[in-house]
Amino acid sequence: MSELLGFVPSFSKLRGKPNDDWIDRMSHVYTVVVLVIFTVLVSSGQFFKDPIQCWHPAEFKDSMESYTKWNCWVKNTYYVPMSDIIPEDISDRQEAEITYYQWVPLILLFQAFLFKFPNMIWRIFNGGSGLNLDKVVRFAEKTQLVSPADRDDTINSLARFMDKWLDSNKEHRWNVVVRTKHQISRFMCFFCNKRAGKYLTAMYLFVKVLYVANAIGQLFLLNAFMSTSFNFYGFEFLDNLNSDRPWRESPRFPRVTLCDFQIRQLQNIQRFTVQCVLPINLFNEKVFIFIWFWLIFIAVLACINLFRWLYLIVFAKNKIDYIKKYLKINNELHTNFDKKMCTRFAENYLRDDGVFVLRLVAKNSTDIVVTDLVRDLWKIFKEKQSTKKNELEPTENNFDDAKEKEPLT
Predict the structure, then answer these.
(1) Residue among 10, 11, 16 nearest 364 (CA)
(2) What are the tens digits of pLDDT across the range 157-193?
(3) CA–CA dist 176, 262 (Å, integer)
(4) Helix, strand and coil in the chain, % to nearest 5
(5) Could you tell me where the Basic and acidic residues compositional bias lies (predicted)?
(6) Closest CA to 211 of 148, 334, 119
């Protein structure tokens, strides 16, 4: 369970893996913990207490009382308000059945799994980029706890490692197929092209979409599970609070229900209708009120977070401005040529995945670490540019040596 949920019995571990942001952890860590706690509480009420009590006829003996109670618990009960007449038609009674209360612990556990599922997808597939995000972020975070000299050496080593990773993910051949893939990746960031430097960003955006779909979809999923208009449950709760009427029993979580059962005596079949009380629904009502508002809260956060990351990733100017901010802190931009080099540094060297890793490091450590990391990556980039320039442009001495070696005609 600890491996599935991403935490062990220690409060310090509730933060989760440092490969996403805090809004993601609101879904796959904190929400999962809350749902598991609710599952334990509801289960204890069902298994260690009497989940249902029924009012039975006076002629029932002890064995018949026990049979009635457990039969009505296993079998669905139905709800008819005290002011209404019990329907004569059996089909009308079946339409009013409450079908969920036995399955509330499993429903809550299934919800917890759905909240964890997007993070499981992210943890499984982000390694396809060739970079272990967890170790990179933790490595960068630990630099804050060492001496300045060790810190500079550690960040420089991390920069060299990232340089090798960026270089290994570049396309070293160029043909029609590669050019087409790059063009598609340029205009469609959801096209996972590892060589185009968009694998991590596209996968992360896909996971963000899963978080949004999960939070919104669970409202409709609970509506299907509970066979009630759960989508409007919170609005009805608020309306009840604002009215002058006293708190009334919710038809979705009734405390007093009716139960029909038949007893066969030889060839005679006797039908009984008894009135039962469900104490567990008093707790279920409060749990699902909280879950409704929590799902709305998580859905709003997830939507805002998705659109924010879309804005940061899709528009290339945001990527350049992000890197330019740290280069200005390092006092590396002095001329227009430096600004042009900054654009090449962000678009051609770091690309989307490199900038994305820097953003994750900043979110899980500090901007100071990212400032030093960008400084070292900038130095590596300039060294490569100067080396490439020397290889492409021979010096005058090399040109004179070449002339001397020419044969006389």
Answers:
(1) 16
(2) 999 999 999 888 776 555 555 556 555 655 554 455 5
(3) 75
(4) 70, 5, 25
(5) 400-409
(6) 119
Q: What is the mean pLDDT of the chain?
A: 81
Q: And the tokens for 277?
A: 């009380």
Report the C-alpha gap between 122 and 116 in whole angstroms.
10
For 213-259, the pLDDT digits (tens) are 999 999 888 887 766 666 677 777 777 666 655 556 667 788 888 98
Contact 354, 136 (CB under 8 A): no
Q: Is the pLDDT of residue 194 over 90?
A: no
Q: What is the DSSP letter of 347?
A: I
Backbone angles phi, psi at 198, to 5 degrees: -125, 10
Query: What are the tokens at 302?
Result: 């997830």
CA-CA distance, 133 to 131, in Å (whole number)? Answer: 6
8 A C-beta contact, residue 48 and residue 272 = no
Cβ(325)–Cβ(170) below 8 Å: no
From CA 5, how far away is CA 21, in angstroms rounded? 17
* Amino acid identity for residue 147 in this structure: S
Over the Cα atoms of the chain, what is R_g? 32
**The CATH number of 12-130+191-314 is which of 2.60.40, 1.20.1440, 3.30.70, 3.30.1450?**
1.20.1440
Single out the residue of 266, 17, 271 nearest to residue 135, CA to CA: 17
Domain definitions of the chain by residue range: 12-130+191-314
Sheet with 53-55, strands from edge to edge, namely 53-55, 268-277, 256-265, 77-78, 97-98
Structure pTM?
0.80
